[in-house]
Write a structure and sequence with these properties.
By secondary structure, the protein is an alpha+beta fold. Helix 3 packs antiparallel against helix 5. The N and C termini lie far apart (46 Å).
């Protein structure tokens, strides 16, 4: 098996594509600011799905404008542009579906992970992977289409300099001997299959898969918006649209993701 720090190869990843992923063009760049920003900037010139992977991403972003820090050879940072025959409002559960796929692929490589609503992949209770999906709608004469640019960051190792920049504890997969090209190809294949399924059935097809990986199921949590507590209750999984079901003192409520955050309740 190759070392985890072997160079990413667009040719090798393309050779490992399975049928659903054959439509995806694979590109690898040595360095860029943000793979999401790069694809969004050229979305009008893209006619079919594109996977853009960066060996070094210098201005990666997470939800709510947060920075995603990475280092060469220590991460997988990539974006997949995919065209849906659905309006943008029907893609609200997509980040959760993508999270479930990432967790399932990592498990196949021997890395046990769980999911934190709405879009974090956890290992040993710490963030291992994050997801940022940005959209662009395109109107044609026949139907409305939506491009989703699915950005994913995955920590494979945690050099001291990177840990310092992040400033808080996160997880990595340094104990696993991973070939990054094989892992990237497996993620691409699973994502392509999942996006075809999401196109046909929406998040309903992923609801059980997500709930089976729910890190905080049955635990007391708080929902926070810009430092202010909005809700407190017991996390009870997600519904068919990806809303968090929260059992509160006043009864069960459904919480939309937006820019809110979930935390375990202290005490």
């Amino acid at each position: 098996m190759e070392s985890m720090v072997s160079l990413l190869s667009a040719q090798r990843i393309a050779e490992l594509r399975q049928p659903a992923a054959q439509v995806v063009a694979v590109r690898v760049v040595a360095r860029t600011g943000s793979t999401n920003a790069d694809l969004l900037a050229h979305i009008g010139m893209i006619s079919s799905p594109v996977l853009l992977i960066a060996e070094n991403q210098t201005a990666g972003r997470g939800r709510a404008g947060r920075a995603w820090h990475s280092a060469p050879d220590a991460s997988l940072t990539f974006s997949l542009a995919w065209n849906f025959r659905r309006p943008v409002q029907e893609l609200v559960g997509l980040p959760l579906a993508v999270g479930a796929v990432i967790a399932e692929v990592l498990k196949s490589f021997g890395i046990d992970t769980l999911l934190k609503w709405p879009n974090d992949v956890l290992k040993d209770g710490r963030k291992l992977s994050g997801i940022l999906i940005e959209t662009a709608s395109v109107d044609s004469s026949r139907e409305q289409r939506t491009w989703a640019v699915i950005g994913i960051g995955l920590n494979l190792a945690m050099p001291g300099e990177l840990a310092t920049r992040i400033g808080h504890a996160v997880a990595d997969a340094s104990e696993s001997s991973l070939d990054r090209n094989s892992l990237m190809a497996a993620l691409l294949n699973a994502l392509a299959e999942a996006l075809v399924l999401f196109e046909a059935q929406g998040f309903l097809a992923f609801m059980t898969r997500w709930n089976d990986l729910h890190a905080y199921a049955g635990q007391p949590v708080v929902i926070i918006d810009r430092g202010r507590t909005l809700h407190e209750g017991i996390a009870a999984g997600v519904d068919a649209t990806g809303r968090l079901q929260l059992d509160t003192a006043a009864g069960r409520i459904a919480v939309m993701a937006g820019d809110v955050s979930l935390r375990l309740q202290e005490g």
